[in-house]
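Q: Give me the 3D complex with adenosine-5'-triphosphate.
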Amino acid sequence: MEYSILADSFEKMESTRKRLELTQMLVELFEKTPQEVISKIVYLIQGKLRPDFEGIELGVAEKLAIRAVSKSSGIAIKKIEDEYTKGGDLGHAAAVILEQKTQTTFLVENITVERVYETLFKIAKLEGSRSQDMKIKYISSLLNDANPLEASFILKILLGTLRLGIAENTVMDALAIAYSGNKENRKLLQNAYNVSSDLGKVAETIALEGIQGIEKFKVNLFNPIRPMLADRVKSEKEVIEKMGEEFAIEYKLDGERVQLHIEGDKIELFSRSLEKISSYYPDIIEKIPKMVKAEDAIMEAEIVAINENTGDFLPFQELMHRRRKYKIEKAVSEYPITVNFFDVLYCNGKDCTDLNYIERRRKLENIVQENEFAKFIPMTLAKNENEIEEFFENSINAGSEGLMLKMLDKPYQAGSRGSHWLKLKREYRNELGDSLDLVVVGGFFGKGRRTGSYGTLLLSTYDENTDTFPSICKVGTGFTDESLDQLYQILSPKTTIKKNPRINSEMDADVWFEPELVIEIVASEITLSPIHKVARDEIRKDTGLALRFPKFTGKIRVEKMAEDASTDDEVISLYKGQNKAAHDKNLI
Ligand code: ATP
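A: Here is the predicted complex, encoded as structure tokens.
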């Protein structure tokens, strides 16, 4: 398939944000796509090469891309940098530069989607000392044969700046229309995606086998399932209103969620955002398969750091010590953990997601052999507020952050946040009503004791509608010397020459970061703001929302991607909730 077809579609898609138009453009693109290329097209649309859980990252830095453009065009690096800083992104700058070049070159060979994809794949796999030079060689050879428009999109994919604003749902709508003629079949595609987390595979299946193939889609070992999530509630009373007569309550442990895929001795661990995390937990890899009394299983658990002497749960950030590549054995012995199981999704070759909560819990208790290292999350059945209150107190005293409440007769709904699971956290009773998970987008250099680190950070929410990161506050409190140091280590490799176009902020930070890192923040209230961009024009014209007295809680949410951060809609609902509470108080 000629790559120019894809590049032309990308150009059209960039010119609109309207979901219906994007769907139509995708349908047209899919209709021109041969079946054997469809999965590649679906990954490339999302700026990826494979599903996230395979961990294949292009990871090309701006500087390297600029060198490749220079090599291919013969134009000096400085000139390319100047063009880049003038405006637009690097893809656009390269198109302008290469436009000048093609006026003097006549040898342009058509490039195919397959060639672009294979080359990008090779680049992603390169490692070792000579990898930089090899990357430049591969990129410039592609650029040599690309026209300026094609080149600009190759660079955008390489740099991770391709932003077509196409949500997964839109891709599924278009696949349903293109391959079954009926948008309603989207629901079936959604199920297939929820159990496989692989949109390329879903696309290939419907292209090759039609809707029948999609209906047969099954849970597969070592292919992570999109996690079921919970709605938040603020009080025991709300729980009773929403949960009905009798329900299960479990401790909400403050650790890292893990999905364990086990077959005999083989085991793989996936995080909440479905990344492979097995290398951080060699103790789980070694011990857990021996404790499972089943041929194979997919289970969910919360990994929690513990105090070895007392057995008490320790806060989430203790697990951060495990996030290292080297000397992991040392971290394993210094920072012990327990694995606390709460669900089973697959067992002995059978999908368990259709079983109800009680059946799954029973099965779970039958297949895991409990001991000091592997436990079941404490659970009880409850009917009224007093029972919830009592279990809540116990859970807090044991060092957990609250309760999870689960309906007894409901299946495991992969990939959905709904009312079948609720969460009641301790923080929900604090000033703002909740903590927020925000994306670090900019930094300001510290003074005094904080010299050499970022003393203050600029934070954003995630706006799902525009796929951007609007700023919400600057935060400079809540940091310890250790956390400042740790944040500097994580953030400094993420600095960019220019602000990523997805960051929506009027502030001038000292440095800009790729919007990737998520941290947890508490604040005293949400106020109207003329500067910040969250919910701009939603409550009042030319005004956004901001956090008052924000404070870092110490939690770096490594398991969350930037797109999992708190959204504008959540901030608006907290803002409205807070105003309602203030109003109610005045009435008393
Ligand atoms: P949060 O920011 O509250 O951790 P989240 O967005 O990560 O929320 P939610 O579905 O809202 O995910 O909350 C559930 C999270 O709580 C899970 O992702 C898991 O890590 C954790 N957890 C702790 N105990 C349990 C439990 N008993 N059952 C399910 N999840 C639990």
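A quick observation: The chain has three domains: 48-159, 229-429, 436-587.
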